[in-house]
Each structure stands twice: as C-alpha cells, then as structure tokens.
Structure to design on (803 residues):
C-alpha cells in the first residue's frame, strides 16, 4: 500500500490496488481540521464505512462528492461500484469563552482553539496604546484572592497572539492595566505577556486575539503571588487547671507567598476571664494579632490559665479569629476546656473474670473521700474482645457508657459490664473501660483492663497401648475432645510399672524412658508420643509402663495416664472375637482363644466399655432406662491345655427406635501368653424400628398427579429409606402421555423420610384423555426398607373418569 499527501489546501490519502479492486480517496477541508478513517481498496459492490475525526476546535459538517452533499451522517456507509473521491468538511467550533465577559478561571494553564472565535459588537478592538486586536478574540475573567504580582502570558500558543488586560464590567467601559496590551515580548518571540500588581477581589478581564486576525491553538497561563490564598482554622484544646497556658494552634491550609495575619480575642464560656489571676478568675483575657510568616503553615496563640483550689466542674473559654490578611477563615472559633485538678484523684482497677460470669463489675475509687459528690464518665472500648448492643453471635461483652456518681463521703462506686458466654474455644480476650470528664475530682489511673478468660477449652485424653515385645515402639495417641483454634501443649513423662525403663536398651531394660512437651497444632484433634521398646528372648509375663500427662496449656486433662503393655512375644497369643446380636437376645457371648494350647493355665483381665461416638451403647449396673448392656469386668481363666473360654455379657431389650449400638470388651494383663487381638466389638442391632404403610388415593383423570402418602407408625431417630415402583392395576403405564392408551407415567425410586419425620410422598403423573371409560387403578409397591419394616407394602390409586 502507498500513502501520498499532495497539494497545499487538502490532505489526500490514496490507496490503490490492482484491478478489479476499486479505491476510495478522502479529502479533509480545511486542511488540518481533522482526519478520516476508512477508505482504501474494495471489491465492487462491497460496503465501505468512512469516519470523520475532528481535531480540537473543529466539528464535522458533512461529506461531499463532486461538490454535491452526500450525507451528514458520521460514520458514513455506502456501496462502492466505481472509484470514489469523498471530501470531509469541518468547521471551526465557537469557543465557550468567545463572548465578553469571558470564562472565569483559576491560576494555571488553559488551552483553546480560536478559529471559531468572533468579535462581538462593542468589545475593544484597539487599545489606547500601540497594538490592535483585529478579530478572533476570546475572553477570560479572573479575580485574585490576595494582593501581589500577577503575570499573564500566551507562551506555548501556535500563532502570533495579542494580549490585553482590563478592569471594568462593561465592554464599553474597560480600563487597560499592566501596559495596556502586549503584541509580543521582543526578539522575534510572538508570545504575549502582561505583568502587573493585582488587587485582591478586583475582577480582571483578559482579552486574547490574533495579530492580523490569525487564530490557532491558544495557551493562556496565569501565575504569581496573588494567585492563591490559604484558609485558616483553629483547633480546640484541653488543659488541666494547673497548666500555665492553653496553647491554640492556628493552621494554614497552604503556605502563603506573603505574611498572613489574623486578629484573635478570648471570650468567656463557663470559665471567667480577667486582667489578672484573682479570686473567681479562671484565665487571663487575651487579644492581639497572630502573624504566620511566608512559607509557614501554622502559628500558635497562648492564653494564660489561673490555678485555684476550688473543687468545681470543668470550664471552657473560646478564642475567635477575625480580620485575616492574605488568607481566609475556614474555622474561626476554638474552645479550650479547663479540667479541674482540685479534689481527690480517681482510679479504676483492672478485672479478670471467667467467660461464664454474668457481669464484670468495675470499681472506681477516689484517693480520698470527698465532701461533695463526684461524677465521672465511663465508656468501654474493644481490645481483642468485641462489644455489641446485646449478647449474640460474635459478641463478647455488652458495650456500656454513662456517668458514674460517687456519693459525698463515699470511697468507691461500681458499675457492671455484662459479659457474654459462648461455646467457642478461643484465647482469653480483653476490653478496656476508660474514665473521662471527672467533676469534683481528677483522673489518676483512668483506664481499666477487663480480661475475659475462656472457659471452653477442650479436654485431653491419652489412650492405652498394647504392643508385642518385638515391636520397635509403642505409640500413644493424645486426643482433644474438640478441635481448638489455638495450639494446645502438654508435658509428658514415662514411668515404670512391671516394665523397667532405661536410657537405652540393655539387659533387664524393657523400654527407653522419655519425656518432653507434645503440641497439638491449632485445628488438629490429636498428637502422638512414641516410646521405644526393647526386644528380648525371655519367656515372661506381659509387662507394663505408663505415660503421665501434666501442665496443659489451652486445654484441661480428662485422662492423665496412658498405660503401655508390652506383651511377651515368646508365648502364644490370646484373641477375642466380635459379636453381633439382636437387641432381644439375652446375652452376647464372646470367645477368647489361644493361638496354641499350653501346659499351664492362662489368665487374662477383661472389661466392657462404651464404644466412642454417637453409635456407642450405654453400659450400666443392671438393665433399666437408658442401659443397653450390663457392664462387666473380671478375670477369665483358660485351663491348661485348653484353647478357648467364653465371656457372657447381658444385653438389655427396650422399645426405643434407635440406631444399632456397639460396645467393646477389652482384654488386658494376660499371664503366660501375649495379647493378639485384645478387643472384641459387640454390635446390638435394634429391633424397635417403626412400620411403613402407603395410602390409597383417589384422583380425577384431569389431575396432574396421583400423590401417595407413605407414613411411619412413629417418628424415628434416624432417616428411614424405602424403594418404590408403580405397577398396572386396570390403568396402563407408559413413558409419555402422548402414547395412545397411556393412563399414567411409570415411576420408580427411593423415598427418604428424615429423622424426626413421619411422612413422605410419591407423585405419579396422570395422563388425561377423552375416552369414556370406567374408573381405573394403578399400584405403588414399597420394598427394601432401611431402619423400618413394611406394614402395608402396596398403595392403590383410583383414577376416576372425567369424560
């Protein structure tokens, strides 16, 4: 592609390709007023889109071809069937500051294109001195906020400018300032510049035109020390009565190019001013002028305070600013609070309370009793504890504020902050109570720390371990009752039982002693302690040692000791089987077996225990309410040369619908044998589940569905599940109602009745037809129940004819 610019009055973009492509050329008028996107070469009959993009100061007018107007649309789309030359016509835009009195401006640089500017009737075209503005003039208006030098220039403009500055409010009543006007600054520079000393608050009219009517991109710049004025504000202050001065800070929003001055004067509030500190005078009346030097942004005003011994309320005075120079006033009045320092000092004690405590009661004490009542404000503030309007989720205490009164001659008073209990395991949390604004006293220790100690820490247990003598180590599991959001640590140390510990495995040593600190990380539920075991070839009874827990952090200890049993591995092993039985059975009979018969009797201790978790059965001394089996422990003897013996555990029948339950029977302390599988699990299967039945609904043929209700004879503590499937009675099933002769749609599936519920429904879609026929029936069959039995396994729906 080749792009060629030709001529002086137009910019031509020509794109040409070999035949049969057709070309579109675009021309911009006037030259430089904008650009055109689109064009190039196109196949005959193709759609072409041209977009005109005006430059600043110009607006698009219309498209021309052969001097005929094509369209004012932009973009413009047409179909090409021959080479085309299209002209984009632009026109200057009248600037918004073309008309007198002009655009209000602030200091800085401004740009505008002046080709569209015009000269109004009555506006100056010739100044009283040397230069003339012959057209294309634009106007600006500027009011300086401060006295000082001001410079206005057209540096950066791309044409020969003429600049004039006036005072006055009407075009025919203007007075030139700063040398009347500026054609250029000399030396061939066509920039114009006018400098003069401005008066704050005076409106100045700025006129810019082109030499000999020229126009283009104008840049106007306004700068100088008169262009900015900062604002003044004065801050409140609080001082104790015994302080020599109350010092007010006066701030300037921005440094000034000249000194800033402002008048000030005190005035009584509840405090009384005077010429000298005498009876009844709280401060010395003060007035004057504050000066903030060039470059500074602040100054101060000091008001002498008078000390007395009168017990009184806090008092206040004001300082008011006025008559600023080289600045304005944003905040012109401040208050000084004089805190009384006569009377006893108040202190509030820290407090530590358990989370379950209803209130944290804080005590405020004066250093000595006062003959007058003392009042002091108080307010809580969050530390790590979170306050709220009332106890609820995420709230640790109820936020409180108010005024506490200590009666005359009393030495203390209290107020209560409600503390909120929760079940969240969390670190101890703190909040503060702050005292303020005392009357009849001063503040000594004005802040108390309230510490809420957590009472929801989990408990620790350690499990017993039994390992064959040849095992390298015994691993004890330490468990938390619940996960904690913080690390839990506990000390541990081994101790001898019948097994003997030592620093290393040697003759007569059964395990390696160990001690240390176990850490269960935040979010974890358990940790382990490993004790190395020593192997030997002696035939001996099983031996035991213990691991003791102590000094927990962020937890309590529920079970402080775990027992490690080292089963002799040079003898037969003893095992116990699992047993499963129906709840109505009288006993669960566990069989304890030896891996091989030996020539001497074998004894082993046994004990039942509830299984962990929600499915655990509950043992008791005898069958009764809430008891699932009779707890039992003792010693079992397997006679010499025998290989087994049994342990009978009584099982308790009840009428509760409940989940299957389990308990354990654990063997320990064997003699003459080693422990193999030392724990048997007894599973009691429930026989009290509810029964299921399904109803027989009647529906009209026009109904959308036949809804069967499946009912439990009683609520269940667990979810009940049952399969269902439709079957034809006299009605005929199908997969879609559009099939001829289909009375209902086949349905199969599984229905779940949640724990605590008593019913569920199965909806079977019914098909409407126009056949006059007898009432028809369909069946819903129940099967394969879980956690229930079926009393009525079939529901019959009757579809009554509506034709």
């Amino acid at each position: 592609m080749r792009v060629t610019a030709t001529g002086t009055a137009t910019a031509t973009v020509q794109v040409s390709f070999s035949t049969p492509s057709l070309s579109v050329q675009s021309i911009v008028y006037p030259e430089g007023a904008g650009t055109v996107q689109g064009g190039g070469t196109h196949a005959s009959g193709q759609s072409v889109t041209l977009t005109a993009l005006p430059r600043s100061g110009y607006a698009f007018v219309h498209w021309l071809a052969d001097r005929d107007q094509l369209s004012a649309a932009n973009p413009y789309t047409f179909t090409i069937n021959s080479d085309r030359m299209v002209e984009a016509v632009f026109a200057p835009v009248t600037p918004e500051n073309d008309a007198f009195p002009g655009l209000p401006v602030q200091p800085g640089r401004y740009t505008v294109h002046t080709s569209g500017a015009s000269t109004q009737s009555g506006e100056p075209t010739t100044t009283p001195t040397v230069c003339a503005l012959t057209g294309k003039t634009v106007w600006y208006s500027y009011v300086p906020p401060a006295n000082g030098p001001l410079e206005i220039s057209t540096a950066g403009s791309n044409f020969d400018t003429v600049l004039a500055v006036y005072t006055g409010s009407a075009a025919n009543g203007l007075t030139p300032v700063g040398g009347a006007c500026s054609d250029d600054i000399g030396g061939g520079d066509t920039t114009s510049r006018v400098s003069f000393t401005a008066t704050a608050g005076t409106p100045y009219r700025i006129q810019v035109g082109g030499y000999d009517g020229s126009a283009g991109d104008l840049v106007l710049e306004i700068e100088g020390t008169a262009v900015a004025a900062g604002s003044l504000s004065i801050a409140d202050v609080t001082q104790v009565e015994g302080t020599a001065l109350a010092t007010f800070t006066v701030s300037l929003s921005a440094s000034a190019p000249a000194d800033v001055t402002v008048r000030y004067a005190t005035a009584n509030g509840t405090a009384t001013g005077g010429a000298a500190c005498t009876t009844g005078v709280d401060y010395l009346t003060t007035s004057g002028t504050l000066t903030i030097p060039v470059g500074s942004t602040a100054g101060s005003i000091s008001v002498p305070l008078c000390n007395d011994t009168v017990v009184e309320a806090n008092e206040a005075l004001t300082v008011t600013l006025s008559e600023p120079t080289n600045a304005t006033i944003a905040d012109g009045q401040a208050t000084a609070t004089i805190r009384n320092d006569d009377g006893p000092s108040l202190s509030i004690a820290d407090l530590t309370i358990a989370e379950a405590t209803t209130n944290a009661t804080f005590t405020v004490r004066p250093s000595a009793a006062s003959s007058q009542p003392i009042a002091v404000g108080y307010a809580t503030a969050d530390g790590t504890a979170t306050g709220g309007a009332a106890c609820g989720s995420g709230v640790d205490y109820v936020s409180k504020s108010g005024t506490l009164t200590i009666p005359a001659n009393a030495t203390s008073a209290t107020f209560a902050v409600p503390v909120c209990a929760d079940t969240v395991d969390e670190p101890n949390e703190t909040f503060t109570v702050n005292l303020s604004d005392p009357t009849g006293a001063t503040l000594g220790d004005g802040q108390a720390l309230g510490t809420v100690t957590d009472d929801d820490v989990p408990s620790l247990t350690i499990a017993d371990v039994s390992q064959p003598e040849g095992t390298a180590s015994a691993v004890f599991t330490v468990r938390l009752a619940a996960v904690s959001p913080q690390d839990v640590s506990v000390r541990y140390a081994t101790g001898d039982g019948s097994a003997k510990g030592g620093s290393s495995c040697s003759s007569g040593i059964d395990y390696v002693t160990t001690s240390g600190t176990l850490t269960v990380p935040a979010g974890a539920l358990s940790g382990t302690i490993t004790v190395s075991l020593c192997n030997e070839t002696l035939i001996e009874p099983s031996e035991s040692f213990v691991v003791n827990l102590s000094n927990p952090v962020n937890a309590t200890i529920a079970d402080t000791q775990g027992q490690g049993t080292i089963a002799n591995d040079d003898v037969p092993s003893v095992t116990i089987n699992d047993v499963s039985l129906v709840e109505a059975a009288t006993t669960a009979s566990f069989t304890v077996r030896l891996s091989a018969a030996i020539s001497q009797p074998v004894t082993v201790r046994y004990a039942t225990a509830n299984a962990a978790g929600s499915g655990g059965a509950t043992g008791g001394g005898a069958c009764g309410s809430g008891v699932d089996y009779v707890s039992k422990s003792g010693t079992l003897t397997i006679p010499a040369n025998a290989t087994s013996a049994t342990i009978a555990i009584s099982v308790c029948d009840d009428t509760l619908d409940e989940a299957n339950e389990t308990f354990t029977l654990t063997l320990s302390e064997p003699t003459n044998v080693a422990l193999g599988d030392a724990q048997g699990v007894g599973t009691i299967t429930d026989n009290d589940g509810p029964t299921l039945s399904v109803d027989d609904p009647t529906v009209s043929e026009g109904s959308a569905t036949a809804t069967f209700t499946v009912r439990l004879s009683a609520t269940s503590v667990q979810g009940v599940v049952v399969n269902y499937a439709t079957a034809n009675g006299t009605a005929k099933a199908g997969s879609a109602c559009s099939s001829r002769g289909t009375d209902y749609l086949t349905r199969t599936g599984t229905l779940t009745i949640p724990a605590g519920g008593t019913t569920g429904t199965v909806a079977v879609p019914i098909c409407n037809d126009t056949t006059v026929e007898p009432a028809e029936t369909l069946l819903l069959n129940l099967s394969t129940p879980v956690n229930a039995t079926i009393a009525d396994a079939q529901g019959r729906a009757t579809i009554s004819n509506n034709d």
About this structure: The chain has no helices and 73 strands. Residues 254 and 797 are 89 Å apart (CA to CA).
